[in-house]
């Protein structure tokens, strides 16, 4: 399959909110949050818009690729909700980058980055594109109810971008969506439609935490094993398992079920919380900047999220 990631970039808001900061106004504690999730702090937007973060991450990825915005054939953003329901976040970024290539959003919740990579692969394989800018950006601080301690403590805001070109990195890709609108959701309102039979202002994000936990651990185990079978490889062929950073306990449970060593499962949820679809590209950027990923390394990326969606891919780093 003809794709490689040539560069990454990230942006997070300036403000860091610690667990103790949240405990000032909610009945929670640093101990509870750390022991249940592994999260110590998260970045939360105060002045930044999601477009600001997405644009900053994009500029950084373009610089790393030594390519101009005008070299991009597509801009694909994954997000649950941009600054505008319409136009898309991708169009808001293209306004700042001054591009005219097609730009659009996809929403696969926390699995969005893997979905975006899969779309990029299809465009590149078909010959429709040579260079694609992917930006995964989410601002869940504006979607959660800050009086709901079971949900608001979990998330952070951020953006991760990458430039993708023709190459031979991508060895495996599998996506799925197990249609479900109850386990995690955020329902939109009906506006002021006077004819609506079910007038509603919309809801904050709701989540059945233990259902998500079970779904995630099962999905990670199943999808990692599927990738092994499809590629006829074992865990020793993979250098890093880069999982969506939703909860350290989810990552640990899945890792233990797979009987794999901790050092192959990088974690940064302690610093950023769950940044939704931005979590894997933020982790990838951190690993690349830290010199941890080397040419020839095999990376298995797997994510899960509202939908309920899953996405898994294997990259041989070029
Ligand atoms: N501080 C203190 N106590 C809390 C908090 C909090 N922040 N939140 C919940 N509690 C309480 C509950 O009220 C409950 O109290 P009770 O026993 O008196 O009723 C107790 O802690 C235990 O709550 P549980 O929900 O049973 O705790 P659990 O062990 O399931 O952990 C958690 C909750 C962390 C949410 C866990 O279920 C989880 O991580 N689930 C997955 C979440 C996730 O990954 N979501 C992202 C999905 S991706 C996307 O697309 C958005």
Kindly report the name of the CATH homologous superfamily of the largest domain. Answer: Thiolase/Chalcone synthase
The helix-strand sequence is EEHHEHEHEHEHEEEEHEHHHEE
Second CATH tier, the architecture of the largest domain? 3-Layer(aba) Sandwich
Q: What is the class of the largest domain in the CATH system?
A: Alpha Beta
Total domains: 2
Q: What is the rounded Rg?
A: 19 Å
What is the mean pLDDT? 96
Largest sheet: 5 strands, mixed
Tell me about this structure.
There is one protein chain. Helices cover 33% and strands 23% of the residues. The chain folds into two domains: 4-168, Thiolase/Chalcone synthase (Peroxisomal Thiolase, Chain A, domain 1, 3-Layer(aba) Sandwich), CATH 3.40.47.10; 172-316, Peroxisomal Thiolase, Chain A, domain 1 (3-Layer(aba) Sandwich), CATH 3.40.47. The two termini are 13 Å apart. The chain has helices at 19-23, 30-37, 50-65, 89-97, 112-126, 149-152, 209-231, 248-257, 269-272, 279-289, and strands spanning 4-11, 16-18, 41-43, 74-78, 103-106, 131-139, 157-165, 170-177, 184-185, 206-207, 240-243, 298-305, 309-316. A hairpin with a 3-residue loop joins strand 12 (298-305) and strand 13 (309-316). The chain is globular. The chain is built from ten helices and 13 strands. The mean pLDDT is 96. The chain has a five-stranded mixed beta sheet, with helices on both faces. A four-stranded mixed beta sheet has the order 8-13-12-11, with helices on both faces. The chain is of the alpha/beta class and 318 residues long. Acetyl coenzyme *A binds at residues 28, 32-33, 36-37, 109-110, 149-150, 153-154, 184, 207, 209-210, 212-213, 216, 246-247, 250, 274, 276, 305-306.
């Amino acid at each position: 399959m003809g794709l490689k990631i040539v560069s990454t970039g990230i942006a997070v808001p300036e403000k860091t909110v610690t667990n103790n900061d949240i405990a000032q106004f909610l009945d929670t504690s640093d101990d509870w949050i750390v022991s249940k999730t592994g999260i110590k702090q998260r970045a939360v937007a105060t002045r930044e818009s999601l477009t600001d973060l997405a644009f900053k991450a994009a500029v950084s990825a373009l610089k790393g690729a030594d390519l101009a915005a005008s070299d991009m054939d597509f801009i694909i953003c994954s997000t649950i909700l941009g600054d505008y329901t319409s136009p898309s976040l991708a169009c808001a970024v293209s306004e700042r980058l001054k591009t005219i290539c097609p730009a659009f959003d996809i929403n696969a919740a926390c699995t969005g980055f893997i979905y975006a990579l899969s779309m990029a692969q299809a465009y590149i394989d078909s010959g429709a594109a040579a260079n694609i800018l992917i930006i995964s950006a989410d601002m869940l601080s504006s979607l959660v109810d800050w009086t709901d301690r079971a949900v608001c403590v979990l998330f952070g805001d951020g953006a991760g971008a990458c430039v993708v070109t023709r190459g031979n990195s991508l060895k495996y890709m599998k996506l799925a969506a197990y249609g479900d609108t109850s386990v995690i959701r955020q329902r939109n309102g009906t506006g002021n439609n006077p004819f609506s039979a079910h007038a509603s202002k919309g809801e904050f994000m709701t989540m059945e935490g233990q259902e998500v936990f079970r779904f995630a651990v099962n999905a990670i185990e199943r999808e990692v094993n599927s990738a092994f079978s499809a590629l006829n490889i074992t865990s020793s062929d993979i250098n890093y398992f880069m999982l969506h950073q939703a909860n350290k306990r989810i990552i640990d449970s899945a890792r233990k079920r797979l009987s794999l060593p901790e050092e192959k499962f990088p974690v940064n949820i302690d610093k950023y919380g769950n940044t939704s679809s931005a979590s894997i590209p933020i982790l990838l950027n951190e690993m690349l900047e830290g010199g941890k990923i080397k040419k020839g390394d095999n990376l298995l990326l797997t994510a899960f999220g509202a939908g309920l969606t899953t996405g898994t891919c294997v990259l041989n780093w070029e």
